[in-house]
Amino acid sequence: MAKKTKFYVVWQGRQTGIFTDWRECEAQIKGFDDAQFKSFDSLQEAEAAIQRNYWEFVAKKEAAQKQSMKVVPASIGKPIKNSIAVDAAWNTATGDMEYQGVYLATGVRIFLQGPFKDATNNIGEFLAIVHGLAYLQKKESDLPIYSDSRTAISWVKKKHANTKLELTPRNKPVFEMLQRAERWLATNSFPNKILKWETEYWGENPADFGRK
């Protein structure tokens, strides 16, 4: 089955417009402060969207999530706004992985890394958490970190990425990053809680790349 074309609208970036290739879109937003972009399933939707305000679509997405969310058990409650959320994206076609972290209260991106060749989503989620911990340590901050990956959270607690991925020349940089991350966990303590993002009740992880 042919891969469905996505249309990426960039309202704010190095260049604005509609892009059909993610890498071209990424070139406009990666490392650009307060970049504004969103994917659409059709050119008609994208053309209509670019004529309107980015925040309209953010608000619509949040409203749709609220409508579809279930009653939140008292044991789960609401997410802590004064926190950061991390997530990773893995391209099934290329095997490329990247990850990012955002400040939950504002949605502002704190860091973005990648893409890295021949990695996995779990590795990206693990590296994102450790990156977040190191970032917060430099800021002398005790903010909690949210991740929607139980696997990555367990790896961080064990201070070891239990990946079955095989080392190749293409993904050697990823394994080097894993070693540095594990070494950082082994030699540093931190006050930050690592919490599970409850997608079922709260909607999509704020650090999600929006390519589903």
Number of helices: 7
Beta-strand content bin: 15-25%
Strand order of the largest sheet: 6-5-4-7-8
Mean pLDDT: 88
Low-pLDDT ranges: none
Secondary-structure element series: EEHEHHEEEHEHHEH
Beginning-to-end CA distance, first to last residue? 17 Å
Rg result: 18 Å
Structural class: alpha/beta
User: Tally of extended strands?
Assistant: 8
Reported for the largest beta sheet, the result is: 5 strands, mixed
Gross morphology: globular
Subcellular location: Cytoplasm
Domain Ribonuclease H1 N-terminal: 6-48
Binding site for Mg(2+) 2: 125, 148
Keywords: Cytoplasm, Endonuclease, Hydrolase, Magnesium, Manganese, Metal-binding, Nuclease
Please outline what is shown here.
The protein has 212 residues and is of the alpha/beta class.
Task: Describe the protein's architecture and organization.
This protein is α/β, with parallel strands linked by helices. 36% of the residues lie in helices and 20% in strands. The strands form two sheets. Strands 6-5-4-7-8 form a five-stranded mixed beta sheet, covered by helices on one side.
